[in-house]
Amino acid sequence: MAENIIYPKITLAAARVNAGLTQVKASEALHISKETLANYESGKTVPDWDMVRKIETVYNFPSDFIFFGKELRLKRNA
What pLDDT does residue 67 have? Predict the structure, then answer.
């Protein structure tokens, strides 16, 4: 029987820093404003799934290990 393993998640900002990107460089690569990225990182707003996939690609890090907040989890499980 498979166990439910809970993996630790890192923040979106930590994923960006681990990718060696500033907010400016990351926002340019994602084609969004720095303010939009800052809102995602602070939890003020939540990216849609298309943006999550872009973040995954730009940061070269699986979104399953990035904490986006409760709201995104509810959207994904819907």
Answer: 86
pTM over 0.70: yes
Domain ranges across the chain: 10-77
Q: Was domain 10-77 assigned CATH 1.10.260.40? A: yes
Helix, coil or strand: residue 62: coil
* β-bridge mates for residue 10, sequence order: 66
Give the relative orientation of helices 70-77 and 49-59 as an angle to the nearest 10 degrees: 110
Model confidence pLDDT, tens digit, residues 17-41? 999 999 999 999 999 999 999 999 9
Task: State both tokens at 25.
Answer: 């460089």
Is a pLDDT exceeding 70 seen at residue 46?
A: yes
State how far the alpha carbon of 62 is from the alpha carbons of 1, 13, 33, 35, 51, in Å. 25, 14, 22, 23, 13
* Pair 46, 62: CB distance under 8 Å: no
